[in-house]
Amino acid sequence: MKPFASRYLLLVAITALLGACQTPPPAPPPAAPAPTAGQLWEKNLATGDLAKAETELGTLQQSSPNDPNLDQYQHDLAVAWLQQSQRALQKGDLNAAATALTHGRSLMPKAPALTNGVNSAIANARKAELDRAEAELAAASKPKPKLIDPTAPHSVIELDTSHFKQMRHQLDGVASDMVNFNASVVVQSPRRDDGPWLVTLLTARVKKLDPEFTPDITSKVYSTQPARVLVSPKLGE
Fold first, then answer.
1. Do 89 and 165 have their domain in common?
2. Which burial class, exposed, middle or buried, applies to 17 when counting CB atoms under 10 A from its CB (0-12, 13-18, 19+)?
């Protein structure tokens, strides 16, 4: 009897095991429903993804044109675009500010008062930017002095008459400053004959730079000092 009982118990265990293996797995939980266009709109608005929010708003307007919330959605999105435009304007990004303003204006075409303030701020910022660019261009194109201080009433340049090559270089710089800053020159020399000679050299250089320019050059004799030129630009011109 014992062998028979053992075989019987073994058969029962195997049958139970096979039955357990054949039990179907539990059904998976039902999938979460897909978010609605309204829920996507709210999510995108909250995260600041206004372009996607605008797309979802268009979907809502087509699928549910009678939804009473559409006007509020459109208003809230327009305000969000205007706030983004203001932030971009504060950062100095005029292109981004203008783009955001265009979106906001398209959503609220019948309420121009909402966009007038930002629009005026962008226009003023663009004008200021243009003024800065023009000032920088004017400064870059303004001639640079060679030897003088153009803001001073006059500048004194002592001529190196002992080295003719160096003196010629100095006279080239004086002539350039005369033409560019409409300057007059007084040649001061220790000997009477040096004055007319220096005037001739300087006049030739001025005429080479600008044949139409009329140089204002005079000479004076100062026997106790070395040769030099006194250059006086026309201030404010």
1. no
2. exposed
3-state SS class at 185:
strand
For residue 32, what are its two tokens? 């979460």
Distance between CA atoms of 161 and 201, rounded to whole angstroms? 13
- Checking if the pLDDT of 236 tops 80, the result is no
Asked if 201 contacts 164 with a C-beta cutoff of 8 angstroms, the reply is no
Strand order in the sheet with 184-189: 155-158, 228-232, 184-189, 217-221
- Pair 118, 89: CB distance under 8 Å: yes
Amino acid at 72: Q
Helix (H, G, I), strand (E, B) or coil at 182: coil
In the chain, the N- to C-terminal Cα span, in Å, equals 131
pLDDT at 220: 93
Identify the domain containing residue 55 by its residue range.
Answer: 37-141
Distance CA(76)–CA(35), nearest Å, equals 20
Residue 86 lies in a domain: yes
Phi, psi of 47 (to 5 degrees): -90, -5
Hey, what's the torsion of the CAs at 112, 128, 83, 97, to 10 degrees? 90
Q: Is residue 108 part of a domain?
A: yes
For residues 137 and 167, membership in a common domain is answered with no
Nearest to 45 by CA among 102, 90, 103: 103
Domains contained in the chain, number: 2
Q: What is the pLDDT of residue 237?
A: 54
